[in-house]
Amino acid sequence: PAGGALLTVDNLEAWYGESHILHGISFNVAAGEVVTLLGRNGAGKTTTLKSIMGIIGKRTGTIRFDNHDIARASSDKIARLGVGFCPEERGIFASLDVRENLMLPPQVRSGGLSLDQIFTLFPNLKERLGSQGTKLSGGEQQMLAIARILRTGARFLMLDEPTEGLAPVIIQQIGRTIARLKSEGFTILLVEQNFRFASTLADRFYVVEHGRIIDGFANSELQANMDKLHSYLGV
Ligand code: ATP
């Protein structure tokens, strides 16, 4: 999007030790968009999110967020700029209850959601306030994980496979939450294997293969490119 990019990633390369995983990832996300990274297992989607969050040891290339160069910034600094990352494994504290999980994340930036705002978005969490992380359903854990990011003041949310392992009715609930966050002005970068879910939410899609972006589509172009997508994703 001309002029309006909140996040610009250009020629990003990343390594785990000696393993060269990303080979030049380039894409952008405009403020207020939902953008989805698609691709087969091991393509490099999670590594892309981790690189943006600053939690990959070795990365090169350009990453600009909100007019700041974050390619070499620490994850603390990146969080303070308003970037939040919800990992696939969700990262909640299993031994703590819901209230404790919600109280722990530091507000690193103004605009962190209050508990009341969290309960408006996630009524289930209010009912489960005293329940331990281990006692929550998968869907409740996912909602708690997103809620924790919202407590920090993040305005740009990176969600790694939020629907993984969840029942269809819960997936719908997560979808409504993401749509609502978008309508409230949050910008969302989603990694999803569930293409149907992503296609109801995302404005644009990028396809990741072998550590590169090999194609991109607007939502309105999906139908016309279904054959290509099938071949990329093997679905
Ligand atoms: P998935 O849906 O399986 O997570 P992905 O597209 O997110 O797929 P990544 O998790 O980014 O893929 O993984 C990209 C490549 O990096 C894979 O080949 C994976 O085996 C490798 N990899 C991931 N994490 C590490 C690690 N900590 N150390 C070494 N290699 C890793």
From TrEMBL:
The ABC transporter domain, residue ranges: 7-235
Transmembrane segments: none
Matching InterPro entries: AAA+_ATPase, ABC_transporter-like_ATP-bd, ABC_transporter-like_CS, BCAA_Transport_ATP-bd_LivF, P-loop_NTPase
GO molecular function terms listed in the Swiss-Prot or TrEMBL record: ATP binding; ATP hydrolysis activity; branched-chain amino acid transmembrane transporter activity
UniProt KW keywords: Amino-acid transport, ATP-binding, Nucleotide-binding, Transport
GO terms classed as biological process: L-amino acid transport
Pfam families given in the database record: ABC_tran (PF00005)
SMART domains (UniProt xref): AAA (SM00382)
Matching SUPFAM superfamilies: P-loop containing nucleoside triphosphate hydrolases (SSF52540)
Summary of the function given for this chain in its UniProt record: Involved in beta-(1-->2)glucan export. Transmembrane domains (TMD) form a pore in the inner membrane and the ATP-binding domain (NBD) is responsible for energy generation.
Family to which this protein belongs: Belongs to the ABC transporter superfamily.
Protein name, per record: Amino acid/amide ABC transporter ATP-binding protein 2, HAAT family
Provenance organism: Nitrobacter hamburgensis (strain DSM 10229 / NCIMB 13809 / X14)
